[in-house]
Amino acid sequence: MRQLRKSDIRKINEQLTREYEGQFSISPKSKVIAKEIEEKGRKTEVLVIDGKPSFFFRHEKIFPTLNILVEKNPLKRVTVDMGAVKFVVNGADIMRPGVVGCDETVTKEEPVCIVDETHGKPLAVGIALFDAGELLNQTKGKVVANLHYAGDKIWNAGEG
């Protein structure tokens, strides 16, 4: 665990601007701690901003956490039926039979927010494995890789 300097925050803000077209930024006045966690044999760096897990890094990319997406969600959405919710919040990848819809502009390898069909609540952050049309034309199999879900170690990184 280490506190980030203003120069580190500036570089992260540049990356956020590139990857999310200015939708997110970190105030230079915020207390930002980089915390490394391990889950399922994979190490992930989580940025805890003013005590709240806010962003995480995976494959050199930065992703917003669900804590941020509840407040502001510019990510494209993949909607799952209520039967899929329990699997998604236990870390399962999103399978085609559970998908009831997605934003038409979803592209392969793009970050997406998985939401439930009843409330539209963010359940997970993932990477689309297909473009929208191709995703919806699938009849079976994995369509979104689940990177972070409600209740995982990233979600709880602000504690302690």
Topology:
Elements: E1 2-3, H1 6-20, E2 32-39, E3 42-49, E4 52-58, E5 61-64, H2 66-71, E6 76-80, H3 82-88, E7 94-95, E8 99-102, E9 111-116, E10 122-128, H4 132-137, E11 142-149
Parallel strand pairs: 6-9
Antiparallel strand pairs: 1-2, 2-3, 3-4, 4-5, 6-8, 7-11, 9-10, 10-11
Give a short account of the largest sheet: 6 strands, mixed
> Class of the largest domain in CATH?
Mainly Beta
Radius of gyration: 16 Å
How would you sum up the global shape?
globular
List how many beta strands DSSP finds. 11
> Percent of residues in beta strands?
35-45%
Order of helices and strands: EHEEEEHEHEEEEHE
What gap, in angstroms, lies between the N and C termini?
11 Å
Low-confidence stretches: none
Number of domains: 2
Query: What is the CATH superfamily of the largest domain?
Result: PUA domain
Widest sheet, order of strands: 7-11-10-9-6-8
CATH topology of the largest domain: Archaeosine Trna-guanine Transglycosylase, Chain: A, domain 4
What is the residue-mean pLDDT, rounded to a whole number? 95
